[in-house]
Each structure stands twice: as C-alpha cells, then as structure tokens.
Design the sequence.
C-alpha cells in the first residue's frame, strides 16, 4: 500500500489514497479539490523516496468534504486561596478532506498508469 507523509498547517500527516483526515482550515469550498505540495516522504511497497526537506514535483490531491469545528477545548486557570479563576475555551476550525491521488514526479501511485 502506497503512502505519503505531507505537511500542512504546521503538522505532518501520514496519508494513503482513500484516507479521510482533518486538517487546519483551508480556503477551499466543499466539493472542490485541494492539493498539498509539501510531500516529505513517499513509500510504495518496495521503494522509499525521502525529500530534502520536500520531494520536488510531488503532489497529493484531495477532495474537500466539509468545513467543520473541532470539539471544544477548555482552559481553566486557578490560584488557590486568592479568589482567582478564569475559564477560556475555543474550537479549532477544521477542513475534512479525502485523499484522492498521490503523485511523485513521473511515477504515480494507485490504479492509474503513468501517462507517456
């Protein structure tokens, strides 16, 4: 099974074709495609390609499924015996994407053959 490690939003994700992941908010409408150019590593069953720091010409394309919010995160600050307590919280905005293709230069993974 071919997979790639991509970087987006300051985080790294291990993705394969057909995977659904949540990434930081992207400015892309649901139903459209998004592409990730920061491919750090690509591996199919026998070969491993590592970037320095990224693989030149490699691209991962994904279909944007929805824009959503993460679960609420609560930060509670408290000082004992001082009468001090503060509650703050936030919900991260996320984009849910489904990985469609992983292409590395001339080679392509998946059932599609490389065009000549």
Sequence:
């Amino acid at each position: 099974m071919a997979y790639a490690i991509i970087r987006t939003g300051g985080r790294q994700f291990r993705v394969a074709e057909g995977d659904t992941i949540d990434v930081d908010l992207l400015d892309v409408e649901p139903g459209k495609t998004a592409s990730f150019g920061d491919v750090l590593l690509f591996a199919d069953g026998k070969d491993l390609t590592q970037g320095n720091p990224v693989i030149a010409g490699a691209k991962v394309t994904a279909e944007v499924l929805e824009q959503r919010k993460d679960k609420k995160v609560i930060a509670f600050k408290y000082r004992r015996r001082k009468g001090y307590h503060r509650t703050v919280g936030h919900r991260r905005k996320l984009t849910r994407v489904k990985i469609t293709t992983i292409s590395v230069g001339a080679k392509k993974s998946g059932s599609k053959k490389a065009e000549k």
